[in-house]
Amino acid sequence: MIAVATSLQSAVVAALATVVDPELDQPITDLGFVRSIRIDPTGVTVHLRLPTSFCAPNFAYLMASDAVDALRRVPEVGKVTVLLDDHHDSDKINAGLAADAGYVGTFGSEAEQDLDELRRIFQRKAHTAAMERSVMALLRSTGTTVEQLPGLTLGQLPGGSHKEALLRRRTAIGLGIRPDDLVLVGDDGVPVPAEAIPMRLRFAKAVRISVEGNAHFCRGLLATRYDNEPGGLITDTRRTT
Amino acid sequence: MYEKNGEKYFIVDAHIALWDGRASNQKNIHGKQFIDCFYDYHKNLSPEEVVWDYDTYTYYGGQRLLKDLFEDGYVDHAIFQPAILSDFYVNGFGQTEDALALTRANPGKLTYNHAWDPRHAEAGLEQLRKDAARMNLQGVKLYTAEWYGDSRGWKLDDPWSRRYLEECLELGIKNIHVHKGPTIRPLDRDSFDVADIDKVATDYTELNFIVEHVGLPRLEDFCWIATQEPNVYGGLAVAMPFIHTRPGYFAQIIGELLYWIGEDRILFSSDYALWTPKWLVEAFVDFQIPAELTEYAPITVEQKKKILGLNAAALYGLDVPEELRLPAGTVSREEAVAS
């Protein structure tokens, strides 16, 4: 966790915590990708870092530009500067962020279209994995059986972190979150037919294992690359308390 | 050969390299970034006592390779899967001529696979014919994310790639190893996407497609495709060392692979010199799916024998000594289905 001392600091950290690595489905603040935060009288400067120089530049750009957007929504923040350190495309990405050039504007002829579809692919994977976690937790903790799953609604899921995560991911891909909405639906919201549910859950499990495994790998590589240097160091010259 | 508890295992390391990542061979900063990234993989996932120093890691040479694989590493046969990366390295990253010479000097122990790139069009096809004859190619290693001029990668089902695959059929090159790796430059699509393998595996059923790193970080997409295409295999390069750092995750990967694609289509490799085979072979033979993962059956000695060498031996037609084969009467799942 990043230690905060003022309300502005905590607002900045909270904003960064809304930025998610799309592939790992975890906040960049938890992953250690926020290297440092500097708040001064005119604005905020955030340095980001990634597990390797070769982390896909499209994802790198996506996280960095999401961080800019999130920070700009913080009241009284001032000028927002986000810099990606030690990446093979750092110069290009940092220049693009500074100029608000967007992905296509940043990478020019190397990019054909914007990153919306790429982002959606991983939002759908994140939903699949979250659905599996919720359903499996229900099966483990209650007497519910696989045969009872076809009519399972959100309202029947016990509250808690799994359910909250599922609701967030449903919202991200445009699915409903009413208590009477069905849990087992495809990414398009169409209910999974009863006979297809066991296989759907089995595949969803493979998705979850893949996503979780990638997160293990990336965390480990980041720690090795930066020799366990802790991230999230805040310096604040605007501090009034 | 590795022996433990009275069981003998024929070991095929299906993914090795002889590289030169030294500063003297680096064409630009990306050459340094690439070998540094490899070194971080090595340091992060190896047990402390087998971590190399950086200089040795950048260049180790053929004699060290022979020792690590065949003297210390229990390996009976190993297969070169080179990454050429000519945009990053003066003389390429994988050392073609040295590896070829080593292969010739150690008959029966090494297989050299080479690479092709469909963006070289007609000239590359001609080169492939020459390479196939000179190198006695049975397999190729393809790296779809490599830079080439303005191009940031290619797909197996691109029209020129299909012509190369057809040429492979003509030339008797049956084993197509595909690395699905990070793009070096941005592509809008997901560069790890394995969908192109689905298409060519359907269209070229006489070729075997070995997906290196079992499609990680898209394990589920790889499994899904492999269940539908009997000629798709999973190479364990990069997945193997999790057995030390993340044994629970490794158990899940193996459990998923055994569930989706079965014991006959999984190939062991150390990805030498990213990691060394000795500790991986020892750990894998000792490995068992933890009891708390009740959804997976325990992994059997027979399954380990297949994964560690017998599956790759079948793909490459290697001569396995009688005592290291499975007992007569043991049929694989697929043979059982076919008969």
Automatic annotation (TrEMBL), chain A:
InterPro entries, alphabetized: FSCA_dom_sf, MIP18-like
Highest taxon, organism lineage: Bacteria
SUPFAM superfamilies listed in its UniProt record: Fe-S cluster assembly (FSCA) domain-like
Domain MIP18 family-like: 10-82
Protein name in the entry: Metal-sulfur cluster biosynthetic enzyme
Organism the protein comes from: Kribbella pratensis
Lineage: Bacteria, Bacillati, Actinomycetota, Actinomycetes, Propionibacteriales
UniProtKB/TrEMBL annotation, chain B:
A Pfam family recorded for this sequence: Amidohydro_2
Domain Amidohydrolase-related span(s) in chain numbering: 13-318
InterPro entries named among the record's database cross-references: Amidohydro-rel, Metal_Hydrolase
PANTHER family, A to Z: BLR3681 PROTEIN
Protein name: Amidohydrolase-related domain-containing protein
